[in-house]
Prior knowledge:
alpha/beta, Rossmann fold, 2 domains, 44% helix, binds nicotinamide-adenine-dinucleotide
Amino acid sequence: MVFETLDHTGHEQIVFCHNKDAGLKAIIAIHSTVLGPALGGTRMWNYATEEEALNDVLRLSRGMTYKNAVAGLNLGGGKAVIIGDASQDKSEALFRAFGQFVESLNGRYITAEDVGIDVNDMEYVYRETEYVTGVHQVHGGSGDPSPFTAYGTLQGLMATLNKKHGDEEVGKYSYAVQGLGHVGMEFVKLLKERGAKIFVTDINQKLVDRAVNEFGAEAVGLDEIYDVPADVYSPCALGGTVNENTLDRLKAKIICGAANNQLANNAIGDEVTKRGILYAPDYAVNAGGVMNVALELDGYNRERAMRMMRTIYHNLGRIYEIAERDGIPTYQAADRMAEERIEKIGKLKLSMGRGTPRFQGRIRGN
Ligand code: NAD
């Protein structure tokens, strides 16, 4: 049953990690190491069943292979899940035991933070293994990736405006930004700096007030965000918001935001295309975060990070070329771009020998 699933999903390796004393139950899934070590975060979640945890880690690790490939990184895709309640079950022993499992893979898998895990948890993992990114800045790590993700989203937006309208004048257009968290607020700031008209919403009223007062945004209700007369719909909160109920209401001709898994399903992606809406594939647009942590591998530096974010502009351009070349929706073109790169660069790397991560400029120890 497990191998049947792996045949289907194409995973290389699944590691079940168990340490009774530390209360650790975790799964590490390595989907692909063709382009390099499998990089992807660790999620801590109170899964109802072990099967749910396995399905989640298989789905997420495969997604990382595609994301890292499109981002142009020399990294494969992997992900880990720790089964447990992030508000109650965390301990030093749990994360150090997990770190020992990561270490046992000798660099085939490199972890980072994901839902339920913060930089303090990673400090414990880091005591047991070097194969961690997103460590604290005091260790030469990269810190909060959100501003980079927002800046990368802006690059993706410019490429998308260019494709749709033949110009990149961000300030000429209006935006409906859903979610004003770490990425959303920073994105609003960047839009405002370019003189754009911005509609915003969030479940947190304080954040809405800030966007209105500091960035001159117009506040709308949580559900109203789908109806506003904006040129661009920018989901920066939850996944699945482009769905059967919302699509008819959207006035925007561009969808471009930082949220993961924006399309409820592939059929919606096809429908978006039919309606002449240009969808900027989420995992290509929001790759700023992973690019930022990936830079830790050979010496983190903010200037290099900002430079790398700008490649998102070119990645989106390439996706739109592939969509046109093959007559397919953009969400499929992103996958195709990833598969083509894995195929071509994978062969090249095999013939030249694989690089190993160097982790330059980082400081181990406490
Ligand atoms: P965050 O938790 O800081 O912000 C999310 C915001 O969305 C919060 O302010 C929350 O109140 C709001 N929200 C939740 N439900 C909402 C709803 N129904 N309507 C309106 N607002 C709602 O998260 P973040 O780090 O800003 O990430 C935002 C999205 O971008 C997520 O989907 C995340 O997976 C994705 N992403 C983030 C990064 C990063 O670097 N932080 C990188 C890649 C992808």
